[in-house]
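Dear colleague,

Thank you for sharing your sequence with our group. We've completed the structure prediction you requested, and as agreed, I am returning the results in plain text so they can be pasted directly into your records. Please verify that the sequence below matches your submission; if there's any discrepancy, let me know and we will rerun it promptly.
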Amino acid sequence: MGFDADLTLFRMEHRPTLLVDAEKESLQADNILVPLAAIRAGKGYLTEQGSAEHAFDF
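Please find the predicted structure tokens below.
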């Protein structure tokens, strides 16, 4: 047997976004990943966005 898996749940959202790194290089993205919830060591955690959307019931 192994250990419990950690998991993060995202929703892909079409939202044009400018991404800028530490060296001021930029890249235009058409989609972003919005985190909704995570499961760590068997316990569920909702993000603010996940709570607002009632995405999961932990």
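Summary note from our side: The helical segments are 48-52.

Kind regards,
the structure core
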